[in-house]
Each structure stands twice: as C-alpha cells, then as structure tokens.
Amino acid sequence: MSTRLSTLPPFDGAGVLRYLSGHAIPGVEAGDDTHYERLIRMRDGSVANLSVELDGPDAVIATLGGSALPAELVPRVRRLFDLDADSAAIDAHLSGDPALSAAVSANPGIRLPGSLDPAEQLLRTMIGQQISIAAARTVLARLARELDGTGLFPAAARFAEHGLDVLRGPRQRVAAVHGAALALASGSLDLHASLTAAELTERLIALPGVGEWTAGYVAMRTLGAPDVLLATDLVLVKGAERLGLPATSKGIAEYARRWAPYRSYAGLHLWRVAHPPGFVR
Q1: What domains are there in the chain, each with its CATH number?
Q2: Sorting pLDDT into bands at 50, 70 and 90, what band is 276?
Q3: pLDDT at residue 43, rounded to an integer
Q4: Helix/strand/coil (H, E, C) string of the chain?
Q5: Could you say which of 46, 82, 162, 247 is the most buried, measured as most Cβ atoms within 10 Å of its Cβ?
C-alpha cells in the first residue's frame, strides 16, 4: 500500500527531486529526478525506509517500509515537497516583474525543497557551509558512518557526545557545530515546524557561529518560509547578474522588495539561472 499526496498545479516535482538528490548524503539518501528514498527515525524510535516518487503532474506517491504513510509522517512529506504552495499565485506574482518572467515561464510551479527534520537540517547546513556541495556530501557521509553507521543521519546527541572527535576544519566552525548539537541534544534549542520564520531566526542567530544566511536557509528548508531572500548568497547574486539585476547583496535585497511575499521562490529562480539546467544549489 502507498499514500498519494496531491498538490495544485503547476508542480515542479522533478525540480524538488533533483535538488534533494543533488544534496543527498551517500549511504543515507538516494534519488534522482523521479524518486527519493532514505531511512528515517520515527517518534517512537523505530526506523523505516521512506520512498517517494512522482505520480503524474500534480502528485507524489509515498511509502514507508512498503506500507502507507502513518499520519505523523504525512505533513512532513508534504513539507518536503512544498505540496501546500499555491504555485499559480506565486508564479503570477513573480511574473509581474519583467526581469523574472522568462525564468518563471521556463520553470513553472517551482517549489521550496523541504526537510524532514529541523535539527538534522541545521547541522547539515552548518557543516556544509563554505565548501562545495560535493565536498559537503562527502564530509556528511563520513560523519554518518563514524557517528551512526546504520544508514541514518546521526542524532544531535551523537554529535554532542562525539562530534569533537570526528569534526574537522577550522576550530571556530567545529566549535559552532558542536555547540549547536549540544543545544539541540539538551533541549535548550527546540526547533519544530510550528515556529514562525522570525521565531526560528531569533533562536538560531543566538547561537555562536550562526548568521543570517544559515538561519534563513534553515527557515526555508524546514518551515517552507516563502519570503526569505538569501541576499548574501554568491550564487544567488550571480543569477541576479545574469538577469541584469543588481549584482550586490545590498542591491538585490533592495530590488527584491517587489517580490514579497514570495522572495524565497524568486531566490530559487535566481539559483537556477546561475546553474542551469541541473542545478543543485
């Protein structure tokens, strides 16, 4: 048995799958333009294999261990594929800017790739910063093997207990990742999908070593926050330049006010413009 989860068209499901597979941690996740799968830890501590694939132009089919999804997982998978977005309204709004209209026409129904676990996403983001996506996947795969070894992404408690033994890189970055893991493991940092983007950002930037880019990216991935522009992102600025838009962080931030309340989706278009056609930013 399986669970079919539908959405309103247009739906760029292949784009979400491409993004997820482009960021997939070897040994933990796998996928391509048509499917995605990984082991996940459920609330009761059990472990099962989640598999999701496209089902026509406006739906996905998901299974957990070959069975239909339990109720607790349905909203998490819907967030993973941004299935509750009103793409027609988003596309119409962004197309009102002549500078974006061609990009929107080329990629209708673009969706924000989500995350199944906010704590995992924060650690992945912090570890992967300032290195390439390929390098981040390699590092995260090594950490998953050394800290867990079961095919699961390591829990924050594992990073808190053993992170200093396996994390590598600049001392300040290692300390920041370890500090975030300690906060997550102790419960002093509580991340969940019912937070607002402002609440999540406030909690994250209070952590040493976590800045606005990290907080904004995690808000986009875990909450589906629709109006976050990562103006300091170099790839985003590169995409803006290719469209003839201001090619500085300050300039694009000011220009992007016209894209509110959908600046997150505009940013996805700029990423694609910078890295067509198989972008994995």
Answers
A1: 3-84 (3.30.310.20), 86-111+224-276 (1.10.1670.40), 118-223 (1.10.340.30)
A2: low
A3: 85
A4: CCEEEECCCCCCHHHHHHHHHHCCCCCCEEECCCEEEEEEECCCCCEEEEEEEECCCCEEEEEECCECCCHHHHHHHHHHCCCCCCHHHHHHHHHCCHHHHHHHHHCCCCCCCCCCCHHHHHHHHHHHCCCCHHHHHHHHHHHHHHHCCCCCCCCHHHHHHHHHHHCCCCHHHHHHHHHHHHHHHHCCCCCCCCCCHHHHHHHHHCCCCCCHHHHHHHHHHHHCCCCCCCCCCHHHHHHHHHCCCCCCHHHHHHHHHHHCCCHHHHHHHHHHHHCCCCCCC
A5: 82
